[in-house]
Design goal:
single chain, about 500 residues, alpha/beta, 5-stranded mixed sheet, 13 strands
Length: about 500
């Protein structure tokens, strides 16, 4: 089997000639290979136009994508070929409600975008590799963002862009960016966010890159927050990184997100009112508060308590959206809410070690380890009940202080026996709701030790397997129900 790969370099294009001779196919191909494809600009559009009646017409897709980029889908792009003959080609373009004009009269940015899309659609292939050298030279910033969004959503397309443009770098996701430094390396990896920050606005990984271009990083993170579509207010840095990973599974990358780290759940409730007052006064098109989404761990709250709390926070604080995970927390126990998904993640990880595995054996080992955990929990029920009562009591006091009423008392008195509730959670489909870090660590160690793979849930990734390692094997085919909230915002 031979994979048909098409690699093309989109030449910089500032203008085209006012007249163009009709060319045969071989001459057009020669122009393209010589990086002077603009000499056959009209010919190439006509060739695509002549295929407009084909099933799945590339011409229709080409025009629709142009309309998306240039008009934000508020109108249509159309081409006409009046008075053309065997020697010369005339081409008019109609952009939305504008009167048709000769193609040579449109701006350089529009010409550059048409040139790039022509390369994508002229020839069908199983993989398009697009090389763009400074594509932002003549293109308005909004159109740059629209272009990247369209190209990124195109099937079987890989794009490589070189740029010195700060705006384009700021719009890009960190895992898109490779920084080619003065001293060349043999291997390059995407840049990463700073994981050392404990509280406040999570620093953009793009700042150091912009500084090497002579720009200033100071204040850039705050500008990113102002220009973002959503601001996720979370407990810790790892929560932000996990949400960013989850978003990357479904999002085309052109929506912009910022992350504000609060440190822990107590800080969230202690300071939420202060943040509301400040964020409400800082505005671009919307205030920071209008774009804020609060996400925190459920801990020992029941499902009913969780729902009552979310409704009251959203109403009293006038937040766009508030969410807590249905599992004990996001970082760890959520993975155990669907053992089939976790089994797939483990299978992919173990195979990456070039180890032979029996897929049913992985699932069996995981279920066995979970049953052992449940039996251990039953033995520890007294200490778990005391820990649960202490945490709920502390939260109850905090909620009442903030005016969130009957969140916990709505179910039971804190002094009563909590064992019946705990016993309902000691089922394999519910245990994730009370699985703490040590529980997750114990189960994964049992499964991976059978393959001689060391595991520490928060260990150094360069020395041992940890949760970050496993999370790298989460793909678009492995989606947890608890994550759908993020995709719907």
């Amino acid at each position: 089997y031979v994979l048909l790969i098409k690699i093309f370099y989109a030449s910089p294009l500032a203008n085209i000639a006012s007249q163009e001779e009709r060319q045969h196919a071989l001459k057009i191909q020669y122009f393209k290979q010589s990086h002077v494809s603009y000499l056959a600009f009209r010919n190439r559009i006509e060739a695509l136009f002549q295929r407009r009646n084909e099933a799945g017409s590339p011409y229709d897709t080409f025009c629709n994508q142009l309309s998306t980029i240039l008009l934000d889908n508020n109108g249509q792009i159309k081409f006409e070929f009046p008075n053309s003959n065997n020697l010369n080609l005339n081409l008019l373009i109609k952009i939305g409600s504008e009167i048709p004009k000769d193609i040579s009269l449109v701006g350089s940015g529009t010409l550059q975008i048409i040139e790039i899309l022509l390369n994508v659609h002229e020839q069908k292939s199983e993989l398009n590799i697009i090389l763009l050298d400074e594509p932002d030279s003549h293109i308005h910033r909004r159109l740059q963002t629209n272009l990247l969004s369209v190209l990124n959503a195109s099937e079987h397309t890989q794009i490589f862009i070189t740029t010195h443009n700060e705006a384009l770098i700021r719009d890009a996701q960190p895992n898109w960016i490779f920084h080619l430094e003065k001293q060349p390396n043999k291997t390059y990896y995407p840049i990463e966010r700073d994981k050392t920050a404990k509280k406040g606005l999570l620093s953009s990984a793009n700042v150091p890159i912009i500084q090497t271009l002579g720009g200033y990083g100071t204040g850039l993170d705050f500008i990113n927050a102002l220009e973002s579509d959503l601001i996720f207010m979370v407990e810790g840095v790892n929560d932000a990184l996990r949400i960013q990973k989850i978003l990357s599974l479904r999002n085309n990358g052109m929506r912009k997100y910022a992350y504000w780290v609060m440190g822990n759940v107590d800080s969230i409730f202690d300071q939420l009112g202060h943040y509301k007052n400040v964020f409400s006064e800082i505005k671009n098109e919307k205030s920071l508060w209008d774009k804020t989404v609060l996400v925190f761990d459920k801990d020992f709250l029941t499902d009913n308590q969780r729902e009552r709390l979310l409704v009251q926070i959203e109403t009293k604080m006038k937040l766009k959206k508030v969410y807590t995970w249905q599992s004990y927390n996001l970082l760890m126990s959520t993975l155990f809410s669907d053992l089939n998904n976790l089994s797939l993640i483990l299978q992919r990880f173990i195979r990456s070690k070039s180890l032979e595995i029996d897929t049913s054996a992985i699932s069996d080992k995981l279920n066995d380890a979970m049953r052992v955990l449940i039996e251990e929990k039953k033995i520890q029920i007294e200490s778990i009940e005391n820990k649960m009562r202490a945490q709920l009591g502390k939260q109850n006091d905090k909620f009442k202080q903030l005016g969130f009423l009957k969140v916990i008392e709505g179910d039971y008195e804190l002094g009563q026996n909590l064992k019946p509730q705990l016993l309902r959670l000691f089922e394999i489909e519910n245990i994730h709701k009370i699985m703490v870090k040590e529980d997750c660590d114990s189960v994964l160690k049992k499964v991976l030790s059978a393959y001689n793979i060391p595991f520490e849930i928060e260990g150094n990734q360069e020395i041992t397997t940890n949760l970050n390692t496993l999370f790298e094997f989460v793909t678009t085919s492995i989606i947890y129900d608890d994550w759908n909230f993020i995709f719907k915002i």
